[in-house]
Write a structure and sequence with these properties.
Layout lengths: L4 H30 L3 H12 L1 H12 L3 H33 L9 E4 L1 H21 L9 H21 L12 H32 L3 H26 L3 H15 L4 H7 L6 H23 L2 E2 L2 E4 L1 H24 L1
Antiparallel strand pairs: 1-3, 2-3
Helix pairs in contact: 1-2, 1-7, 1-8, 2-5, 2-6, 2-9, 3-4, 3-7, 3-10, 4-8, 4-9, 4-11, 4-12, 5-6, 5-9, 5-11, 6-10, 7-8, 8-9, 11-12
InterPro entries: NaCa_Exmemb (IPR004837), NCX_ion-bd_dom_sf (IPR044880)
Main location: membrane
GO biological process, one term: transmembrane transport
Length: 330
């Protein structure tokens, strides 16, 4: 009967994403109203779109399974960036075919600001998180770590908005129906987060997995799944840079605001070698994005080619293989 949780987890993952999108809607309206660029708008919209990570960490902290939240936030940040790049690449090529352009020309093009405003500041938040959680004298998460992480997100959001001013402004209207959808989004998000954490605990217990490992390979992949559909939809609508960079903004929030619930209850790092290796792959993904995209400059844009997408895929395969091997031999 425990395997009935599997479809439940899938439904819950999409439910939390739907709830997050309802919360992100008013923030998208703010972005349009004040004319922030696509790269700068990502961190703002992430306050809503990354809320599933906050919800999962809150539920895991309240239910005494904080290690599931820690594993989920680490694992999802490794796989989400490659997934986003691959899906965005496919969606952009579909756009070109629909517009009768040469399907073999170019690649996935994004604004240059996507590196300086999103990828590299995200890498900085990862570095701060590593400094808070990994060194032996203060290994794990304590309340002071949560306070520092929140301040880091404030700095991340501020720099993005200040550097991303000057975009095209537009008129925005807001209805009572949209307000009700946002409220419903909060409720759905809460229920979906509870199911994700509970289902992960049940399946992980059946398989004999540690909570951290359950978070890394069950919750993380479930929460990354809706990213496929979200990225496809946003890129197909023509918002290529926002569709790609939102993943950096989402996970910058994961390593900052979403840390607070875990820090309040306190989380120890029980499997330090695995956490250290996973953190290495977490940092690798934005580095790959910055390096690979900057290799291909197209005027005021950067581009990722098909071979670059394959590099991201290879990195995920290596990640799964290395961590899987460590689990087997440990």
């Amino acid at each position: 009967m425990v395997w009935l949780w599997v479809p439940g987890l899938i439904v819950a993952a999409f439910a939390t994403r739907w709830g997050a999108e309802q919360l992100a809607a008013p923030l998208k309206a703010v972005r349009r109203r004040y004319g922030f660029t696509g790269a700068a708008g990502g961190p703002l919209v992430a306050l809503g779109s990354a809320s599933p990570d906050v919800g999962i960490n809150t539920v895991s902290a309240v239910t005494g399974t904080a290690s599931i939240g820690l594993g989920s936030m680490l694992g999802s940040t490794v796989v989400s960036i490659p997934i986003t790049v691959a899906v965005a690449f496919a969606a952009s090529r579909k756009n070109r075919r629909d517009q009768d352009r040469d399907a073999q020309s170019g690649g996935l093009t994004v604004e240059k600001d996507s590196v300086l405003v999103d990828a590299l500041p995200y890498l900085a938040t990862v570095a701060v998180f590593a400094l808070l959680v990994l060194p032996a004298p203060w290994r794990g998460l304590q309340l002071i770590d949560g306070v520092i992480a929140v301040l880091v997100y404030v700095a991340f959001l501020t720099q993005a908005l200040l550097r991303g001013r000057g975009g095209q402004r537009g008129e925005v209207s807001w209805s009572t129906k949209q307000t009700l959808r946002a409220v419903a989004g909060v409720a759905v998000l809460a229920v979906g987060s509870y199911i994700l954490v509970t289902g992960t605990r049940q399946i992980g217990s059946t398989l004999g997995l540690q909570p951290l490992v359950s978070g890394l390979f069950i919750t993380a992949f479930m929460t990354a799944l809706p990213q496929v559909f979200t990225t496809w939809s946003v890129v197909r609508s023509g918002q290529v840079t926002s569709g790609v960079t939102s993943v950096f903004a989402d996970h910058a929030m994961t390593f900052t605001l979403a840390v607070l619930p875990l820090a309040i209850v306190g989380v120890s790092v029980d499997n330090y070698p695995i956490v250290l290796v996973v953190m290495g792959f977490v940092a690798l993904m934005p580095i790959l994005f910055a390096v690979l995209s900057r290799r291909h400059k197209l005027g005021d844009q950067y581009s990722l080619l098909f071979r670059d997408v394959l590099v991201f895929g290879a990195a995920v395969v290596v990640y799964i293989a290395v961590v899987g091997f460590m689990l087997v031999v440990s």
